[in-house]
From TrEMBL:
Species of provenance: Aporhodopirellula rubra
Coiled coil (residue ranges): none
Domain Peptidase M20 dimerisation: 176-284
Protein name per the record: Succinyl-diaminopimelate desuccinylase
Top-level taxon in the UniProt lineage: Bacteria
Organism lineage: Bacteria, Pseudomonadati, Planctomycetota, Planctomycetia, Pirellulales
GO terms under biological process: L-arginine biosynthetic process
Keywords of the record: Cobalt, Hydrolase, Metal-binding
Keyword Metal-binding: yes
């Protein structure tokens, strides 16, 4: 086969694998669809000789780990998640190809990347049986990764020399740092009263609003005066109010309780402890702050060989970038495992017209293949 044919057949295999997976609505509310997606992956992988497929489960979230026989801790671990976010249109889980892109929910986050990793596993283990390369696929990244990568690494004891997670950065942008995260609920108590006689009560919503305004004003002091440009001046702490609730359902009753959820992101030198202290002080006494999820800012320590392979394949300079969002990479970093975080060209993530660029999928496949063959000294 000529190399043009190789290129075209790889493109079409990656495209159909991705589009087949998009049809499976593997969201949080559909456990049976997530199971079906794992079955689909198994069928694509179990024909490759010499591979062992292990399934794990925690709190209804399945994971699949694929390794060569006799290899518990592969040197290179490809890692992804098959869960996609929920869409309001229940029959929106299909795709179309236009302008060299696959459009559809989960195409770029990250079923297209899973297709690439499955193809890589099959090709590498066919040509280099026993190569120290594994694959881990989880199903709870969009809700924090506690039952997926965290469980595999902390509880099952999965280890590797380096993890490749194609869920951040871009083709020539390798993520080196991620902000820390605090998801917390702020609850304010008050005293119920009739809406016509506010002097008899204490309005929980109004008291909470004052605290949230103080919090907003405080975080505004970190905000640069120039318009924000990613990679230029985005590296500062932020606080977003994402939920605001009261149990009150009556128009003329002053509520006795109100709560809000905040999503706080912060770079070093801040850490979870210092940030919580800061927030507690600004909120002041008389309300409670309950953390729902926390993560320290993470340095990913990518392998320099990965950026070399990226440069070799693309012929372009590689940028080391800082991400406002987090990834499953932090769970590997807790055990000192380096993480290579870049990905094909993607866009409109988490919307119905999410896309992944097909040509860049082939390029990303080649980058990973080059990196793995270099790192493991396999012949090309
Ligand atoms: Zn993702």
């Amino acid at each position: 086969m000529s190399s043009t044919n190789d290129h075209e057949s790889l493109k079409s295999r990656l495209t159909s694998l991705t589009r087949d997976m998009i049809l499976i609505a593997s969201t949080e509310s559909r456990p049976e669809e997530r199971t079906r997606c794992f079955e689909f992956l198994r069928h694509h992988l179990d024909a490759t000789e010499g591979l062992r497929l292990d399934s794990y489960e925690r709190n209804g979230h399945q994971s699949l780990v694929v390794r060569p026989h006799g290899c518990d801790s592969p040197d290179v671990l490809l890692c992804g998640h098959l869960d996609v976010i929920e869409h309001s249109e229940p029959d929106g889980y299909h795709s179309h190809v236009e302008d060299g892109r696959i459009y559809g929910p989960g195409s770029g986050d990250m079923k297209g990347q899973i297709a690439i990793m499955v193809e890589l596993m099959r090709a590498l283990h066919r040509h280099h049986p026993g190569a120290s390369v594994g694959l881990a696929v989880t199903s709870d990244e969009e809700r924090g990764g506690a039952d997926g990568v965290r469980f595999l690494v902390d509880d099952v004891g999965l280890r590797c020399g380096v993890a490749i997670i194609p869920d951040g950065g871009s083709l020539c942008d390798i993520t080196v740092e991620e902000k820390g995260v605090i998801h917390a609920r702020i609850t304010q108590a008050g005293r119920e009263a009739h809406g016509a006689r506010p002097w008899l009560g204490e309005n929980a919503i109004e008291r909470l609003m004052l605290r949230l305004t103080r919090l907003g004003n405080h975080f505004a002091t970190y905000w640069p005066s120039e318009p924000i440009d990613e990679q230029v001046n985005h590296w500062f702490p932020t606080c977003s109010i994402t939920l605001c609730e009261t149990e009150n359902t009556t128009v003329n009753r002053i509520p006795s309780r109100a709560s809000a959820v905040v999503d706080i992101r912060f770079p070093p030198p801040h850490d979870v402890a210092s940030m919580l202290e800061e927030v507690t002080e600004i909120l002041g006494p008389g309300c409670t702050l309950e953390t729902l999820m926390t993560a320290e800012p993470t340095h990913l320590a990518p392998d320099p060989l990965f950026s070399e392979a990226t440069k070799e394949i693309t012929g372009k300079d590689v940028a080391m970038v800082r991400a406002s969002g987090g990834s499953d990479g932090r769970f590997f970093r807790d055990h000192g495992i380096p993480v290579n975080l870049s990905r094909p060209l993607v866009g409109n993530l988490h919307s119905i017209d999410e896309w992944i660029d097909i040509e860049s999928m082939v390029t990303y496949y080649r980058i990973c293949k080059r990196y793995i063959t270099n790192r493991l000294s396999l012949d090309r």
